[in-house]
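Note to self: keep these together.
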Amino acid sequence: MTDISPLAASARAVFGDPGVHAVVRAGRTVHAVRLGRWVGDEEVPELLCHTGVSGWSPDALVPTRAAVTCARCSRRLGGPAPTHQLPLFGMEQ
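Structure:
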């Protein structure tokens, strides 16, 4: 049996600082991150909105300090619900 605690600790360290959010792989939506239960008692970063990530890989969540653009995450953080689609590519249309 493999000890997963170093893998979980490494993932927690990447997202441990305040203001660090995540994008999923090469995605453009910025999500808020919190710790969630993974395997056994191990906790790892997960998306606040619980958007599905196909499989769980330590490399699936990429850290960023960009502002959260996910509408679900924004609402869960207590922000206003957007009345329009947030820009996906950093450009207003």
